[in-house]
Structure formats: structure tokens, C-alpha cells
Recover the amino acids of this structure.
């Protein structure tokens, strides 16, 4: 279910790091909790964000969830598809439904993130809510 | 149903179009008397650059069509006049008809806000008398009727707190809000330029004194609380709560949304509250109107009186009323003119109709009704906090959620039983909240029927959750697709190629 | 008590069912020391006929027998009988905000129609389903501009309604926003040069009213260019929306805010009214207030719901676009009914009548020696006149004739001593206008009463640009 090559946050974001580029999305668990996603609000390209700061929001009909930056960096691209068709965050959260790409400053920050195994364990620990 | 009757199609009364679809060129629903001054050309009078062509797609219908259109639309609404409307926190009580008559009276509905004061003594008197009654009911020292609704009353109160603290030379940045508060509270705090700090409730759903004690410091401008709180529970420690906040130099704001539990029984002015707002559209029976107009007067203790929005209404020794604009410490104006005057007319008519004993009786009935419901429902629904109710009671959908049915589904099923649903999913501190406020306007008979319906739904959930999950089944439209509405918003009618 | 459905016997049975001996026990949660032990000192109880008497008495101390030339943000227009008949349907006025869409389609569809009508009138793409009033709607427009541009200065035309400006000041005071006001040009319109000088890269918005507080119609395209050149948004406030039936809509604006009271809502001593807010689709998620959207139900039938609710305080709490929780649905419904009744042609004709009467009145008054129209800009149904002599004396003399002759502007603009703001709608008859002119003539320097022939010979519309 949760790709092995990803790292995860406690706030249910995933990140895939390739060199200095990090691709960020929300996990399948997060999209299920939110339900039908109707709007995705992302920062402008060029914005600098610190790890754990809000990157933007994902909205369902009656809820708004902050998306937090898993790593510190600069926003280098946005997924245009999620802005015109936010439902792909529901249908393919770990693939087509990615949200932003960051140019990462400090790759050592990944040490604070969870591996797939740890994240799956974390989800069980949350008691399924 | 119509399939059973060959040839029968639903009449337009069951499927009213938009007024724009009904429009036909040249029709009108209003005519003017002949013009008694020389006609002038708009182009000549103001210049061709300023004149618009006719408004494309604007409706053209006869008077009868307008009457039918809106009459049909009205039949698709549920109102207090239709039946029990137990929306928690909204106080959906009977809207007396005489109030509507007096508010529309010539001389009440027709005076201009800038007419000379000696010529509008009647309107000024209504404002003055209403404020006087609200002072008496709340036990506060001064009232402004200017705020247009509860949330604006909140903001006004917070601005007054800020102005008073500024005068003391104190720059404080935080307002404490219990986690059970209405969403308007934190939003108003932000617009007053303060930061919100949430206070966790204790196991009884009330303010945790220890948590308050540790949160209250010299940074805290105010505590904003609702009493009775949104769980329908009276904060028994209210005096101690106020003492803790005051000891650190902060002020206490009380959201008066639940004042229907207190009128004639207890007065916030005696609790230690410094400033509060009232909702005339809740406690004082002014109609909700499908979402306004409301009215949110703010009431304060004497120390905050100089900060009230200007102008303030005053009575001279000779009995005449006047507006005083000379209020140098005022927080300013929050709305043009003097507030929702028409709502003050209705609220005063309500207060006059009941009289002191009646107001207390209404409160007693509201609280008795809520407790009667609580008693009848607690066997089938889990109480959020097992405490006696004031004017409303709050359950959790935990038992029904185990069968996949949530509070929102139970609400939809209630519609099939002929009731307006309770408030869904609020307060947020309760998982799957069902917040029920019957008000004094519900008869025992109607409450018995409501309990019966709720118990029947609880049984259905056990037998076949699908009934609730697909409800309502009896309304003109079924569940509506809110997801598409939010993803691809259609917020207005547009002329199509064919209708042009 | 006639509003309470439970009898003493019902109450007793209910108390018994829940194990209470008396109603007083219901309040055991409230500490005894805080419970009132005496009845409130409020008046009543009154029977229905006594209530009627009370309010009749109050209503007798009113200006109802006067002909009014007062406008300034609250306009007297004829209200067709159908409005109150329809508003009085309990399904409309005793309903709550339409959160339960399946049993609120009436309100929802009517608000969708309101949104459409306001968008059509203002020339904007979308409108919300109403706000408290014109002053607060204009303030909310300013708050949108601050959010969208992330700038912190706002320039207000001094010809924006003084009380609208006061509301903006109250709201901005604690948000670190600097408000600046610019005086008008000799024409009565926005001074474009002053405006240009007042805007910089920190300016979030320029707010003008059109027709402005003095009645002057603004040159929106030019103003918009000046504002947009520096990246500021243009907010156009409309206090007399009937003007939009005749005048070019402010399409170049980014946000149009205003007051819909003119459309079938009584003057009612200042409220309740219905504010409106219209803008472009790109700003829709920054809008405050309720929005109704069209959608389909489970069977594919058209229906309406409240939409984009995540903007609102009950979900976003301290991060909401506004703290507003109520709209003014019933007043917005009145406006919807009114606009449907008048319709495309009726509304235009009504606007033309207002235009003709106001211009007739301006001409009559300005022809009096000592009186003058100080602002040459074009106007709709409201204009400023300098009175022949002391404005207070003129108003007092008019009051004796049962005429409310206008709003003395000195109260808001100290430099405009002896200037009145006069509003002439279709409710003013020619006879009343002529009576007003007669008082002016009596007080004017020329003591002799002019005949009709003289009037016709008087220079046409002194100062009213042809």
C-alpha cells in the first residue's frame, strides 16, 4: 500500500527525495480521512518553506487540512493537475496526486521522518482514526 | 409515483424553474404612475459614456408569476411554523405575528435614520426602551444595539476590551477560548487583532479551573466563554472563573447565545462578566429569516461604557430621546446608522408580551423541555456528558457509528419523520455530536413524537443502517451532490444560447 | 401565556417523568447566590391589542406625514404589496440558515437568484447571498483586498459614505492597516491626480463610491487605470443600487460592494438592510458570507446547496475569511422579489423617473438666487445644493411645510456649511418639489415669487452637465 521509497510525517504527508528534489503529497490515509477533496491551495513557485511549516491546504466539502512541509526548501513546481482536478488526490494520492516539488536544503532533515514500516506501525498505533 | 398514472407529468408546482427561465420579453410585474415632471434623456443628463444598455438576461415576468414562483419556493422550506425545529444553539422559538405587524407599521418602518431627532422620537424611544430592558435582563450597565448580528457583537465587545486595556497602557495579545466554543468566537478574536489560545474542557465539559489558572497570565486580554456552554451545561464555577481572569488583569467576555436558559433566572452581570452580547434572533424571538437579519446587541459593565460604539442613545430629563455622538473613547462604528432597528421593535414586542413572570416561565419551559428530551433519548443515544441540561442537550453518535451511521445520517432520516434536524457535528469536542434545543415553543405532545421518532431511527440503525444512510426519502430533492458543487462551483444562472 | 404551548398539567407530568418536584429544581446547577429571587423589572405583560397600542403611540411620534428628500445611504422607494405578502410566508421567515438543503430549497433557490441578479446589475461574475449592510460589505471588500494583495495600505475616497468609512476605520484599527482619505475634485468626483499621488506599492485597494456620497457619478474606467497601474485593487461601493439599472456597471472594479436596501427593503430607521458583495471568479474563495451553488441530487434533479463553506468561521475558526455568521437572507429575498416584479424594463423606467425628478428638482432649486449646485459632475437621484443662506433655517422652514429637505452636510464635512444633500426618488411628487422650491425662493435673496414663465426662462440646469 505505502511505497517503500517514500518517507512519511506524523501529519500524514509523504515525500520522495531524488537528489536535491523532494516530491510531496498526502498519504492514502490522509485522503481517506478527509473524504472527497474539492480544492487544493498551494504556495507560489519560489516560496521558501521551513520543515513543519504549512505548505498549503487541502479541502474537502466540510474540512480544511493543512499540508506541512516535510523538509525545508524552496517550492520549484506545483502539480497543475490537482488544481484543476483535485479528485486525483483521492484516486491516486501517491502518484498522479502529488502536490509540490521542493528543492531541499538539508538532506539530513530526512532523519526525522518515518520509513514505510514505521509509518504503517504509526497508523496502527493511531487506532485507525 | 407518477409512473403509476399514465400520461401524468409532474406539474411545475413540483419543479419550479428559475425565474430567469420563466422570463418573457415585454412582461412586467410593476407599473409606475405617469411621470409628473419633464422626461429627460439619460444620455443627455449624464452623458453617453455613463449609460448602460439593457441588462442581458434580467427577468421579465408578471406579478402573478412572481407570486407563484416564490409561493412554490416557500413550500420547499421547513420553518418553525411547519413543526419542531430543535437546532441546538439556534433557539428556534415561535416568532409572534404581532411583532411582524408592529415592525411594518407606518412610523416604525418608514422613518429615515437622518431625520431630525424631534421627528423620530418614536423610533428613538423603541431603541432606548429595548436597551433598558436588555440591561435589566442581563444585569449589565449599558447596551448598544448597533451590532448587526451575534458575531459582530462579539467583535465589538472584543474591540472594547482592547480599547480599555490600551487606555490602561496594557498591550496584551491573547484571548482564551474553551474548545467547545462557537466558531465565530475564534474568528472574531482574530479580527480584533488577538491570538486565540484554546482551553481544554474538563471531564464534565466545563472549563478546567487548573488549566485556566495556568493559562491566565498578564498576556491574556480576555477569556471568552459561553454560559451555559455549548454542551448545555451551566458553568457552576463561573464566579471563580471570573475571579481568576480578573486577578491577572484580564476581562471576561460572555457569548450570550444561550441566554434563553437564563432570562429571569440569573443575570450575567452578577456572575462577574464584563461584556457580553445577545442574539435578538435567538432569545428574543426575532425571526431567523432563512439566515438573517439578526441583531447582536452588546452589553457592558460601567467600566467599559465609554467604549461603546457611537452614537449612544440617551434620554434627557424632559423625557425626550437623543443620540449622543460625543463619545471620545468609543471604539467607533461597526455598522452604518443605529443597528437593525426593525429587530429591536420585534424584541421589545416580545419582552412586552411576556412581562417579567412570563419571561421566567418561558425560560423554565425551555429548560424543562430540554431535560424531558434528554430523559427520553438517553436510553438509545449516548449522552456526551452526563449532567442535567439547561436549555439544550448534546448526544454522541458513538453507538450508531458502530453500525456506520453518523449524526448527519440520523439528521437526514429525521426529516422523513417530519422534523427539522438538530444541530449536526457541533460542538467539536463531542464525537459525532447531536445537539438538541427544543425551546419553550415545543409542546409535550410534540416532544413525545420527536422522542418516538428518534427511538425508531435508533432501532432502524440496528436493523438496516441503509435506511438512514440514504435518507431523506420523502423530500422533493434527495441528498445533493455537495462535492461537485464545491469542485466546480455554479454560483449564478447564465443565459444559454437558446434563451437569447 | 399565549405563546407557550404547555399547560400547567403538561409541566407537572413532564417534571414527574424526569423525577423533579418543581420547575425550580431545573436550575439547581446555578449556584443559589446567583439565582434571581425577585422578578425582573421589565414592563408587561401586554395583550396583543395593548402591544398594538404601545407601538401605535410610538409610531405617532414619527415623521410619517412628511415628504422626505433624505437619501444618503437609505432610500425611500415604493414597495409593491406582493413583497410583504411573500415575506410573511412562515416557511420563509421562520426558517434557519439553509444547512439542511433537502428541506431548504426555497431559500436556497431564491438566494441563487439573488446572487445572479446582483452579478447582472454590478457587471461582476459572482455575488454572495448578502452581508449585513453596505457599510460592512464595503469593509469586507477591503479585507479581501488586504488578503489578496498582502499589502497594508488602503486609500478611501472622502466621498465614500462617511459611516462606511467609519466602519472601515473601526475594523482596520487593530489589524495594522493604514487608511488614507483623499478629497474630491471641484467636479465632486474623485481627484485622479490626488489619487495617483496617494497610491504606492503598498496600497492594497482604492475604495470609491458611485454614485458617490454627493450623488456624483464616478469615472470608473479612469480610476481603475490609476489603481491597477500600481497593482492596487479597485473597490466600488454602491449605496443607491437603482442607479445600476441605468448607469454603466463598474466592470473595471475588482470588487463591487453595496447596499440593496433600495430594492424593496423599508428605510426602517437604518436597518435591517442587505449588503451585497460581487467580484470576479478568481477571488471567490476569498469572499466572506454565504454562497449558494447549483448541483444535482441523487436522482439527477437540479438542486441548490450552500457551497465553498470551508471559507467560513464554523469550519476554519480563527483562520476564516470573516467572522460573519449570519447574512441578511430575508432582506435579500425582499430585494429578489422586488427585482423580479420590476423586471428589466420596469427597473429601467423607475431609474429614469428618479433621474428626471432629481434633475427637475435640482433645476428648480438651483434657479433660486443664492442657491447653487456646487458640483458640476453628472448625478443620478441625489445632488448637493448650497442653500440660499443658513441651511438650518432652510431645513426649519421646510419642516414647517412638512418637508424633510435633505441632509445637512456640515455634520460630515465641516467645509460644506450651508450645503444640503438632496435625494429625489419617485416617491416625491412634482407638487412637493415645487413647494420646496417655493420655500427656497422665499428665503432666497430675490423676494419676489417667480412665475412659471420665469422658471422656464431660467438657465436650464445650472451646473448640471448636459
Amino acid at each position: 500500500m505505502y511505497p517503500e521509497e517514500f518517507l512519511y510525517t506524523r501529519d500524514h504527508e509523504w515525500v520522495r527525495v531524488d537528489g536535491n528534489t523532494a516530491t510531496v503529497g498526502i498519504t492514502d490515509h490522509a485522503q481517506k480521512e478527509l473524504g472527497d477533496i474539492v480544492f487544493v491551495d498551494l504556495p507560489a513557485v519560489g516560496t521558501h518553506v521551513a520543515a513543519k511549516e504549512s505548505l498549503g491546504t487541502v479541502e474537502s466539502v466540510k474540512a480544511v487540512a493543512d499540508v506541512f512541509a516535510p523538509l525545508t526548501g524552496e517550492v520549484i513546481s506545483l502539480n497543475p493537475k490537482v488544481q484543476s482536478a483535485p479528485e486525483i488526490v483521492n484516486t491516486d494520492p501517491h502518484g498522479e496526486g502529488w502536490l509540490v516539488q521542493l528543492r531541499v536544503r538539508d538532506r539530513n532533515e530526512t532523519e526525522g521522518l518515518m520509513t514505510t514500516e514505521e509509518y504503517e506501525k504509526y497508523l496502527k498505533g493511531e487506532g485507525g482514526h | 409515483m407518477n409512473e403509476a398514472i399514465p400520461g401524468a407529468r409532474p406539474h411545475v408546482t413540483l419543479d419550479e424553474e428559475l425565474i430567469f427561465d420563466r422570463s418573457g420579453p415585454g412582461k412586467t410585474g410593476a407599473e409606475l404612475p405617469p411621470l409628473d415632471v419633464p422626461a429627460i434623456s439619460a444620455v443627455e443628463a449624464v452623458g453617453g459614456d455613463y449609460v448602460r444598455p439593457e441588462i442581458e438576461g434580467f427577468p421579465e415576468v408578471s406579478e402573478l408569476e412572481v407570486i407563484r414562483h416564490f409561493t412554490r419556493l416557500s413550500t420547499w422550506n421547513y420553518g418553525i411554523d411547519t413543526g419542531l425545529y430543535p437546532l441546538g444553539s439556534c433557539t428556534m422559538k415561535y416568532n409572534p405575528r404581532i411583532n411582524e405587524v408592529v415592525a411594518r407599521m407606518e412610523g416604525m418602518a418608514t422613518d429615515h435614520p437622518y431625520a431630525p431627532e424631534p421627528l423620530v422620537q418614536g423610533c428613538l424611544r423603541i431603541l432606548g426602551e429595548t436597551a433598558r430592558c436588555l440591561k435589566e435582563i442581563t444585569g449589565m450597565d449599558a447596551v448598544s444595539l448597533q451590532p448587526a448580528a451575534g458575531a459582530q457583537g462579539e467583535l465589538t465587545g472584543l474591540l472594547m476590551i482592547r480599547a480599555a486595556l490600551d487606555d490602561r497602557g496594557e498591550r496584551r495579545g491573547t484571548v482564551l477560548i474553551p474548545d467547545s466554543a462557537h466558531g465565530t468566537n475564534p474568528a472574531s478574536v482574530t479580527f480584533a487583532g488577538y491570538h486565540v489560545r484554546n482551553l481544554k474542557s474538563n471531564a464534565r465539559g466545563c472549563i478546567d479551573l487548573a488549566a485556566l489558572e495556568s493559562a491566565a497570565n498578564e498576556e491574556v486580554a480576555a477569556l471568552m466563554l459561553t454560559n451555559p456552554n455549548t454542551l448545555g451545561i451551566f458553568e457552576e464555577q463561573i464566579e471563580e472563573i471570573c475571579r481568576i481572569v480578573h486577578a491577572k488583569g484580564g476581562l471576561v467576555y460572555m457569548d450570550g447565545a444561550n441566554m434563553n436558559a437564563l432570562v429571569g433566572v440569573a443575570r450575567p452581570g452578577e456572575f462577574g462578566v464584563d461584556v457580553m452580547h445577545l442574539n435578538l434572533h435567538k432569545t428574543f424571538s426575532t425571526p431567523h429569516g432563512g439566515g438573517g437579519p439578526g441583531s447582536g446587541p452588546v452589553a457592558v459593565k460601567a467600566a467599559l461604557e465609554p467604549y461603546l460604539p457611537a452614537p449612544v442613545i440617551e434620554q434627557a430629563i424632559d423625557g425626550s430621546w437623543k443620540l449622543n455622538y460625543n463619545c471620545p473613547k468609543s471604539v467607533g462604528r461597526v455598522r452604518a446608522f443605529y443597528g437593525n432597528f426593525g429587530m429591536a421593535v420585534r424584541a421589545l414586542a416580545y419582552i412586552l408580551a411576556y412581562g417579567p413572570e412570563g419571561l421566567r416561565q418561558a425560560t423554565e419551559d425551555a429548560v424543562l423541555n430540554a431535560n424531558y428530551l434528554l430523559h427520553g433519548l438517553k436510553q438509545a443515544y449516548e449522552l456526551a456528558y452526563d449532567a442535567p441540561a439547561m436549555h439544550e442537550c448534546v448526544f454522541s453518535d458513538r453507538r450508531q457509528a458502530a453500525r456506520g451511521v453518523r449524526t448527519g445520517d440520523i439528521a437526514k432520516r429525521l426529516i422523513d419523520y417530519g422534523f427539522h434536524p438538530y444541530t449536526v457535528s457541533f460542538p467539536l469536542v463531542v464525537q459525532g455530536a447531536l445537539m438538541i434545543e427544543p425551546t419553550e415553543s415545543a409542546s409535550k405532545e410534540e416532544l413525545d413524537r420527536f422522542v418516538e421518532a428518534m427511538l425508531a431511527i435508533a432501532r432502524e440503525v440496528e436493523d438496516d443502517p441503509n435506511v438512514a444512510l440514504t435518507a431523506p426519502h420523502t423530500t422533493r430533492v434527495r441528498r445533493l451532490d455537495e462535492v461537485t458543487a464545491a469542485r466546480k462551483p455554479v454560483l449564478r444562472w447564465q443565459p444559454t444560447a437558446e434563451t437569447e | 401565556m399565549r405563546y407557550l404551548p404547555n399547560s400547567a398539567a403538561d409541566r407537572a407530568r413532564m417534571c414527574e417523568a424526569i423525577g423533579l418536584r418543581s420547575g425550580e429544581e431545573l436550575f439547581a446547577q446555578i449556584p443559589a447566590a446567583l439565582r434571581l429571587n425577585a422578578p425582573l423589572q421589565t414592563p408587561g405583560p401586554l395583550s396583543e391589542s395593548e402591544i398594538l397600542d404601545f407601538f401605535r403611540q410610538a409610531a405617532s411620534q414619527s415623521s410619517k406625514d412628511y415628504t422626505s428628500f433624505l437619501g444618503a445611504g437609505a432610500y425611500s422607494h415604493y414597495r409593491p404589496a406582493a413583497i410583504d405578502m411573500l415575506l410573511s410566508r412562515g416557511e420563509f421567515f421562520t426558517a434557519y440558515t439553509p444547512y439542511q438543503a433537502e428541506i431548504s430549497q426555497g431559500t436556497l433557490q431564491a438566494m441563487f437568484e439573488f446572487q445572479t441578479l446582483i452579478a447582472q446589475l454590478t457587471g461582476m461574475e459572482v455575488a454572495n447571498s448578502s452581508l449585513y449592510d453596505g457599510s460592512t460589505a464595503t469593509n469586507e471588500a477591503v479585507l479581501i483586498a488586504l488578503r489578496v494583495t498582502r499589502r497594508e495600505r488602503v486609500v478611501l475616497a472622502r466621498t465614500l459614505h462617511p459611516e462606511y468609512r467609519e466602519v472601515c476605520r473601526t475594523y482596520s484599527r487593530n489589524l495594522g492597516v493604514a487608511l488614507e482619505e483623499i478629497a474630491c475634485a471641484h467636479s465632486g468626483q474623485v481627484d485622479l491626480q490626488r489619487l495617483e499621488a496617494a497610491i504606492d506599492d503598498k496600497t492594497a485597494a482604492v475604495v470609491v463610491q458611485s454614485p458617490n456620497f454627493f450623488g456624483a457619478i464616478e469615472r470608473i474606467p479612469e480610476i481603475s487605470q490609476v489603481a491597477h497601474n500600481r497593482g492596487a485593487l479597485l473597490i466600488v461601493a454602491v449605496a443607491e443600487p437603482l442607479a445600476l439599472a441605468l448607469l454603466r456597471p463598474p466592470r473595471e472594479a475588482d470588487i463591487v460592494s453595496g447596499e440593496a436596501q433600495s430594492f424593496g427593503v423599508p428605510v426602517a430607521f437604518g436597518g435591517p438592510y442587505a449588503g451585497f458583495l460581487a467580484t470576479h471568479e478568481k477571488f471567490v474563495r476569498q469572499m466572506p458570507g454565504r454562497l449558494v451553488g447549483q448541483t444535482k441530487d441523487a436522482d439527477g434533479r437540479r438542486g441548490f446547496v450552500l457551497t465553498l463553506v470551508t471559507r467560513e468561521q464554523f469550519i476554519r475558526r480563527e483562520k476564516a475569511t470573516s467572522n460573519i455568521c449570519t447574512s441578511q437572507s430575508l432582506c435579500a429575498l425582499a430585494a429578489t422579489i422586488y427585482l423580479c416584479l420590476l423586471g428589466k424594463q420596469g427597473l429601467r423606467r423607475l431609474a429614469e423617473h428618479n433621474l428626471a425628478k432629481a434633475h427637475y428638482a435640482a433645476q428648480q432649486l438651483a434657479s433660486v438666487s443664492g442657491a447653487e449646485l456646487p458640483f458640476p459632475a453628472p448625478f443620478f437621484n441625489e445632488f448637493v445644493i448650497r442653500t440660499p443662506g443658513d441651511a438650518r433655517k432652510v431645513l426649519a422652514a421646510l419642516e414647517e411645510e412638512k418637508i424633510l429637505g435633505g441632509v445637512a452636510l456640515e455634520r460630515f464635512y465641516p467645509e460644506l456649511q450651508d450645503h444640503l444633500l438632496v435625494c429625489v426618488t419617485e416617491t416625491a411628487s412634482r407638487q412637493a418639489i415645487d413647494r420646496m422650491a417655493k420655500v427656497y425662493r422665499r428665503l432666497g435673496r430675490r423676494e419676489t415669487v417667480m412665475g412659471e414663465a420665469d422658471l422656464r426662462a431660467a438657465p436650464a440646469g445650472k451646473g448640471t452637465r448636459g
